[in-house]
Specification:
Elements: E1 5-11, E2 16-19, E3 26-39, E4 45-55, H1 56-65, E5 71-84, E6 90-103, E7 118-121
Parallel strand pairs: 4-6
Antiparallel strand pairs: 1-3, 1-5, 2-3, 3-4, 5-6, 6-7
Length: 142
């Protein structure tokens, strides 16, 4: 099975950096506006607003170098979370947990960064240790 998302869009606000209680793990969240491929009846482009979550070092980098309006490319996976709020009502949210963030513009100001485009990968991805040699099978057609 596969759960892989690739998005390119602009941040609607500066990332919000928090620290989880207990473990102290950094988490940054922000919303990405992604244009649709078509125009509506009024001839205007519409956008989807997608919640993005980053963890650990990637969260710190996003909080330090991204800001409202920055153009980024994101790869990650879709996650749906559910919980019960204070009133006992069931709530859920759909979000993208980012594995990679590519800064696609130069930006300016505090969240600016500069010069060349940068790509950052999260530390939750797979490593070379996750792969192994498959033994040859004479029944395979290739």
């Amino acid at each position: 099975m596969m759960n892989k998302v690739c998005l390119v869009g602009r941040l609607t606000r500066d990332p919000e950096l928090r620290v989880t209680p207990g473990t102290g793990t950094q988490i940054a969240t922000f919303t990405l506006a992604v244009d649709r491929n078509y125009k509506n009846r009024q001839g205007e482009r519409e956008a989807d607003f997608i919640r993005i979550v980053t963890w650990r070092k990637l969260a710190e980098l996003c909080a330090n170098y991204l800001g409202k309006g920055r153009l980024v490319g994101i790869t990650g996976r879709i996650q749906v979370r559910s919980w019960e709020d204070d009133t006992g009502q069931r709530r859920s949210v759909t979000e993208v947990v980012a594995d990679e963030v590519v800064f696609l513009d130069r930006g300016s100001g505090a969240g600016g960064g500069g010069g060349e485009f940068k790509e950052y990968k999260g530390d939750e991805g797979s490593s070379d240790d996750d792969f192994y040699q498959i033994e040859e099978d004479p029944d395979l057609p290739f």
